[in-house]
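Key result, reporting period 2: structure in, sequence out.
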């Protein structure tokens, strides 16, 4: 059995980030590989670490969402321990990554998915590890699977000279957004890059139904919202849509719009989206799971976090009409116009087959 390392964004408080890792991990296990997660976290330095620790344990404040994210990380930890059991301890440095990788006897390392190549999210002094600089054995395959730059460009032009030779050493490179192909070609001079699905769409959706069965909660809301970045415009859109459906429409807010703060487990989060009729989100993976569970949804395009992520997948699936921009306050027609999921799933099936073939060939070729 081949040992395959997975390097992705930190597994902490991000539902989508954890689930995309779970999906890739599951894909590898189902196909006869032994996955091993390399848990690289950002090296903030001593002062920031102390500040973060103090803010995470101090009650009655939530500066920069540090405390709420810390509480959510604790709530999601049991899922990670149970369902992502094969993993390293937390790693901060390239030297430790190199040591742990050697001990794990890896045959390949996959970097991806999620925004592993958005410099803003990886910018510590060890950022080159996301381009696998710690792998110095040419017998170990270097693979990028649906790596995402998050936006339409590369945020650190002064680092291009460091990245170009590292990316040239990869055995196979695929990206999650079509804009990523252009970045790889025009900035990093890599011209054989493929466009593949996010791992959450790579696997059979039944793996999520098994997780939902672990939830003991009961949800009966007609609308679920998963909003990462709260603002008045989004509140207006949601209020308008709910009122248009029914004045007494029950809504479950899975994050930013909660009146009473509640932390959902991964299983509860999936169950709530799965059990709703409508979903309103500004999250990429909120949109993805709305599609997986065949929901009527709108995705409020989140420019700060990367608009291309929404548009790229929506174009692939013919769902551009489900995207809402900040100036579109009257989006009721978009939400209530039924999605033809037979057609959408036909497209997903073809893209899934292409993505599976790419990853299998990259691992075996």
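The corresponding designed sequence is given below.
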């Amino acid at each position: 059995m081949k040992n395959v390392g997975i390097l992705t964004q930190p597994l902490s408080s991000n539902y989508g980030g954890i689930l995309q890792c779970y999906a890739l991990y599951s894909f590898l296990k189902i196909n006869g590989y032994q996955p091993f997660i390399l848990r690289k976290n950002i090296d903030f330095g001593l002062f920031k670490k102390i500040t973060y620790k103090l803010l995470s344990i101090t009650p009655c404040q939530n500066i920069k969402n540090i405390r709420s994210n810390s509480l959510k990380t604790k709530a999601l930890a049991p899922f990670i321990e149970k369902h992502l059991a094969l993993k390293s301890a937390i790693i901060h440095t390239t030297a430790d990554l190199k040591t742990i990788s050697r001990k794990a006897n890896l045959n390949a390392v996959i970097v991806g998915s999620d925004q592993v190549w958005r410099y803003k999210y990886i910018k510590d002094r060890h950022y080159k590890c996301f381009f696998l600089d710690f792998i110095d054995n040419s017998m170990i395959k270097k693979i990028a699977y649906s790596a995402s730059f998050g936006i339409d460009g590369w945020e650190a032009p002064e680092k291009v000279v460091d990245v170009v030779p590292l990316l040239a050493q990869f055995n196979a490179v695929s990206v999650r957004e079509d804009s990523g192909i252009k970045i790889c070609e025009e900035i990093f001079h890599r011209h054989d890059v493929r466009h593949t699905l996010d791992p959450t769409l790579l696997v059979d959706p039944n793996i999520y139904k098994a997780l939902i069965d672990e939830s003991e909660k009961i949800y009966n809301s007609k609308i679920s919202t998963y909003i990462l970045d709260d603002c008045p415009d989004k509140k207006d859109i949601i209020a308008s849509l709910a009122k248009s459906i029914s004045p007494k429409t029950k809504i479950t807010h899975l994050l930013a719009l909660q009146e009473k703060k509640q932390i959902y487990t991964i299983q509860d989060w999936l169950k709530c989206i799965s059990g709703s009729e409508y979903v309103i989100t500004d999250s990429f993976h909120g949109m993805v799971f709305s599609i997986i569970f065949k929901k009527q949804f709108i995705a409020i395009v989140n420019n700060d976090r990367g608009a291309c992520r929404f548009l790229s997948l929506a174009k692939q699936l013919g769902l551009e009409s489900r995207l809402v921009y900040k100036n579109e306050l009257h989006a009721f027609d978009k939400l209530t116009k039924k999605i033809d999921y037979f057609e959408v799933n036909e497209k997903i099936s073809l893209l899934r087959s292409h993505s599976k073939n790419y990853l299998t060939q990259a691992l075996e070729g």
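Residues 2-202+350-364 form a domain with the Rossmann fold fold (CATH 3.40.50). The first strand starts at residue 3 and ends at 7. This case is discussed further under Risks and Mitigation.
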